[in-house]
Amino acid sequence: MAVKAMAAMSVLTALAWGFPTMSFAYGKSHALNEADTNFVRDDLRSLVIDKEHGKMYTDGKPVAKRSYKQAEQYCRSLKYAGFSDWRLPSKEEMVSLLNNKRRDVTVKQAFRNVLPEIYWTSTAASHGRIWYVDFDLGRYSKRKPREDYRLLCVRDRSGND
């Protein structure tokens, strides 16, 4: 009962302050018509392919959190699914993975192993900070590069992939 009361109170507080209420159903879309068909999963290789932009993302077991430099180095040295040209995704590439078209913030439906946490991007910001994407709250901002966050790796697909 206390949990329901707290939830009702937070909704009332949000409404009183003019904040939209959101619920975060992570990972899967609830309606078939919301699936982004440009993102296709390759279960055999634990990859997600963005057909529209010619990208391939790793989606295996989540990698341990790392500093920005360690995340960049990890992707550059990664040999995965027969490829060795991986890199840390840009801010724009990571933001494209968010599914904000509905009330619940999710990651594109093809991903199975992205956690509702903060992930590094490769995009530098002012004052020595780096952009990140938060797959829990559906936002992005800047942080100091020494902090430890999750990572995904991406590569540009060639005509043979």
Describe what this molecule looks like in 3D:
- The termini are far apart.
- The longest helix is centred in the first third of the chain and has 16 residues, at 2-17.
- Strand 2 and strand 3 form a beta hairpin.
- This protein has three helices and nine strands; from the N terminus they run αβββααββββββ.
- With 161 residues, it is of the alpha+beta class.
- The strands form three sheets. The chain has a four-stranded antiparallel sheet with strand order 1-2-3-9, with no helix packed on it. A three-stranded antiparallel sheet has the order 6-7-8.
- The chain has a single domain (26-156), classed as Mannose-Binding Protein A, subunit A (Mannose-Binding Protein A, Chain A).
List the helices and strands and how they pair.
Blueprint: H1 2-17, E1 39-42, E2 47-50, E3 55-58, H2 68-77, H3 91-95, E4 98-99, E5 106-107, E6 118-124, E7 130-134, E8 139-143, E9 154-156
Antiparallel strand pairs: 1-2, 2-3, 3-9, 4-5, 6-7, 7-8
* Spatial strand order of the main sheet: 1-2-3-9
What is the general shape?
globular
Instruction: Kindly report how far apart the N and C termini lie.
Output: 54 Å
CATH class: Alpha Beta
- Low-pLDDT segments, ≥5 res: 1-33
The biggest sheet amounts to:
4 strands, antiparallel
Query: SSE order, as H and E?
Result: HEEEHHEEEEEE
Mean pLDDT: 81
Number of strands: 9
Specify the structural class. Answer: alpha+beta
- In the CATH classification, which architecture applies? Roll
